[in-house]
Amino acid sequence: MKIEKAKSYGFCFGVRRAVEIAENSQNAVTLGPLIHNPLEIQRLAENYNVKYVNNIDEIDENIKRVIVRTHGIPKDKLQKLKEKNVEVIDATCPFVKKPQEIVEEMSKQGYDIVIFGDKNHPEIKGVMSYAVHDRVYVVLTPDELKDKRLREKIATVAQTTRKLSDYLKITNYLIENYKEVRVFNTICNATFENQDAVRELSKRADIMIIVGGKNSSNTKQLYNIAKENCESYLIESEDELNPEWFKNKKLCGISAGASTPEWLVEKIISKIKEMT
Ligand code: F3S
């Protein structure tokens, strides 16, 4: 059986950068898990003594350094952290920082803010916290704007992992209904590159193995795309592999979520080779 990796998979730029920051800041804590991969979190804890705390109150005087994770945190929490006697190392992805800066600047200029995204997602909670007024609307569809009376000056940003076609529905609605709309395209392509690659490979493969955290939404998206096209499995570690899956298969495709480290992908490929 042949094994082929998708053309694009695994760590995106922001996650790679955050992991490097963590490796270089030994004996630090992260506020919330740095990335959505339990094995990588465990490796950082064991090899670099980088652990995580769930909220700021857990940071006691023994903790000297705190890493802010890729999704970013609300402005008031960042401020609270800075007031503590700790070194704050900001690993917020630059592509997440961008909408934070835009929201801050445009709200200062008096624009109403429309954010396309999920208001419960940590990235969006962070982004909306940068507005200097409360005329901020977080929506997933244009319908949610229909009963709102916005001012004539509107600035809009999108959650980094959203689809452009869905964002355009919102921006089109705004342009049709308001005089001045400043549209900022803050969508990050990294997730889509992995998705396109999994789509292409799963159409040719007999079986797809998707490696990643079961709580990671981008990993689940890859799995859903793969299983539309062939028999597919989402696994977190090599222990979950079953030799039965590979019987009579000619091509096994491999992909991994944006928080999955390369060492884990390689470990899984070696185990598949042993089994087949
Ligand atoms: Fe950043 Fe895009 Fe990854 S926003 S964390 S590079 S998916």
UniProtKB/TrEMBL annotation:
Its EC number is 1.17.7.4. It catalyses: dimethylallyl diphosphate + 2 oxidized [2Fe-2S]-[ferredoxin] + H2O = (2E)-4-hydroxy-3-methylbut-2-enyl diphosphate + 2 reduced [2Fe-2S]-[ferredoxin] + 2 H(+); isopentenyl diphosphate + 2 oxidized [2Fe-2S]-[ferredoxin] + H2O = (2E)-4-hydroxy-3-methylbut-2-enyl diphosphate + 2 reduced [2Fe-2S]-[ferredoxin] + 2 H(+). Its cofactor is [4Fe-4S] cluster. [4Fe-4S] cluster binds at C12, C93, C188. Pfam families: LYTB. Isopentenyl diphosphate binds at H36, H71, H121, S216, S217, N218, S259. InterPro entries: LytB/IspH. GO terms for molecular function: 4 iron, 4 sulfur cluster binding; 4-hydroxy-3-methylbut-2-enyl diphosphate reductase activity; metal ion binding. The keyword Ribosomal protein does not apply. The active site is at E123. GO terms for biological process: dimethylallyl diphosphate biosynthetic process; isopentenyl diphosphate biosynthetic process, methylerythritol 4-phosphate pathway; terpenoid biosynthetic process. Binds 1 [4Fe-4S] cluster per subunit. CDD domains: lytB_ispH. (2E)-4-hydroxy-3-methylbut-2-enyl diphosphate binds at H36, H71, H121, T160, S216, S217, N218, S259. Keywords: 4Fe-4S, Iron, Iron-sulfur, Isoprene biosynthesis, Metal-binding, Oxidoreductase. Dimethylallyl diphosphate binds at H36, H71, H121, S216, S217, N218, S259. Pathway: Isoprenoid biosynthesis; dimethylallyl diphosphate biosynthesis; dimethylallyl diphosphate from (2E)-4-hydroxy-3-methylbutenyl diphosphate: step 1/1; Isoprenoid biosynthesis; isopentenyl diphosphate biosynthesis via DXP pathway; isopentenyl diphosphate from 1-deoxy-D-xylulose 5-phosphate: step 6/6. Catalyzes the conversion of 1-hydroxy-2-methyl-2-(E)-butenyl 4-diphosphate (HMBPP) into a mixture of isopentenyl diphosphate (IPP) and dimethylallyl diphosphate (DMAPP). Acts in the terminal step of the DOXP/MEP pathway for isoprenoid precursor biosynthesis. Belongs to the IspH family. NCBIfam families: ispH_lytB, PRK01045.1-1. This is 4-hydroxy-3-methylbut-2-enyl diphosphate reductase. It comes from Caminibacter pacificus.
